[in-house]
Amino acid sequence: MKKRYITTIAFASFLFLFSCSKTEENQKAQLLETIAEFNIAFQNADVPTLESMITEDYIHTNGTSKAIQKKDWLNYLMKRRQQISSGSITPKSYSMDEMMVYFYGNTALVTAKIESQTEIQDSLHVNAYRVTNVWIKEKGQWKRAGFHDGKIQ
Predict the structure, then answer these.
(1) Which of 68, 100, 106, 110 is positioned for an S-S bond with 137, CB 3.0–4.6 A?
(2) What is the pLDDT of residues 36-62, one digit of tens each?
(3) How far is 51 from 71, CA to CA, in rounded Å?
């Protein structure tokens, strides 16, 4: 009886750990898919999509400026969208590599390297950044709550 009890507990523990692992894999896959969608929207300055993908109390910090809130970041994106539409800037590439993802319940911390190329008045601007993103799962959807970058190139 005692041996059977121990076997049952061991099996239940294995199933629990296996299901936790699968849950985290699914959670990570969903988050990475959301990040890919976010990056495409950012490259194209798709303001409505980006607005739907950030939290109400979103904070955005660049290495060269103070932190700004959601409204100010969306205003920046609107200006960027106008520059793209007018042809004064042309995004050439935007990639996110070297990602590391850490989960803390419904919160994820994501670090990565971003490389971008943008043509501005016939001049190609190449940049690289180390970034940290904070993502929060709200009502089953991942939303970016915070961002910080530091230029590395």
Answers:
(1) 106
(2) 999 999 999 999 999 999 999 999 999
(3) 9
The range of the structural domain enclosing residue 133 comes to: 2-151
Torsions phi, psi for 121 (to 5 deg): 50, 55
* Closest to 108 (Cα-Cα) out of 71, 69, 147: 147
Cα(52)–Cα(132) distance, rounded to whole angstroms?
A: 20
Q: Which of 30, 88, 119, 21 is nearest to 38 (CA)?
A: 30
Coil, strand, or helix at residue 44? coil
Report the amino acid identity of residue 81. Answer: R
Strand ranges across the sheet with 123-138: 68-69, 54-61, 141-151, 123-138, 107-120, 89-104
How many folded domains does the chain comprise? 1
Other CB atoms within 10 Å distance of the CB of residue 35: 21
- C-alpha pair distances (Å), 143 with each of 51, 76, 77, 81: 10, 19, 17, 21
Q: What is the CATH number of the domain that holds 7?
A: 3.10.450.50
Among 149, 128, 150, smallest CA distance to 59 is for 149
Per the structure block, which two tokens stand in for 139? 């009502």
Q: Give the burial string for 55-81 (b: 16+ CB within 10 Å, else e).
A: eeebbbebeeeeebeeeebbeebeebe
